Amino acid sequence: MEQRQSKTMKSTTDTFDDLDKIMASHLPPRSVYHKEKEELSRKKHKEEKKKEKRSYFIIKTLVFLFLLLPIIIGFVFLMNELNSSPFNPTDPVSENFDHVHFE
Prior knowledge:
The chain has 103 residues and is an all-alpha fold. The chain has helices at 2-26, 30-83.
C-alpha cells in the first residue's frame, strides 16, 4: 500500500512540475508584462481624452451659437429701426391720424 501511495505522490508531483514548466515557459517576465500593461493603459487613456474633446467641442459650439442668437436678433431689429423712415405726425400727407384744428 505504501508503494502505491508513493507512486501516486510521485506521479502527482511530476505532473505539477511538468505543468509548472509548461506554464512558465509561455509567460513573459513580470516586468515585461507590467510594462506592456502600462503602455496599453496609457494608449487607452489617450483615446478616451480625444473622444471627450470632440464631444466638448460640439457642446461648446452649440452653447456659443445659442448665446449669440439673441445678440444677432437684437442687432437686426435695431438696424431695422434705424433704417426705417422716421415717423412724423405733423406731416400733412400722413393719413394715419385725424387732423384737429384749434380756433
